[in-house]
Write a structure and sequence with these properties.
This protein has one domain. Helices cover 34% and strands 29% of the residues. It is elongated and about 40 Å long. A hairpin with a 2-residue loop joins β4 and β5. It is built from two helices and seven strands.
């Protein structure tokens, strides 16, 4: 797929994920919109999986595609708050992403 087509479709998918995460956290940043596959580009996947990372005493939440590309991420928050929100996401039917999350550092 051409870069601009992949970027346009990926941006739509990532913005949808961003709004969904925003509903849970009150803030969500757009992250990946495309992924490179060899010499071509693909939009991030349509799937919306809940992911989380902890560092020190903080957690960040993500909405990922099935390959682990984070389409949206939260601000860092206390681990307890992050876990409560994460459990709500799962209770609302979002599948959990259990692999390595590919995110913007």
């Amino acid at each position: 797929m051409q870069y601009h087509k992949a970027a346009h479709l990926g941006k739509q998918r990532a913005q949808k994920a961003q709004m969904r995460l925003f509903d849970y956290t009150g803030f969500a940043m757009l992250t990946y919109t495309i992924r490179q596959s060899g010499d071509s580009f693909e939009p991030v996947g349509e799937e919306e999986l809940a992911g989380k990372l902890t560092r020190g005493d903080e957690a960040m939440l993500f909405v990922c595609d099935a390959q682990g590309y984070a389409k949206a991420q939260s601000k860092p928050m206390p681990i307890k708050e992050g876990e409560e929100i994460f459990q709500k996401m799962l209770a609302d039917g979002m599948p959990e992403f259990k692999g390595e999350i590919k995110t913007v550092s």
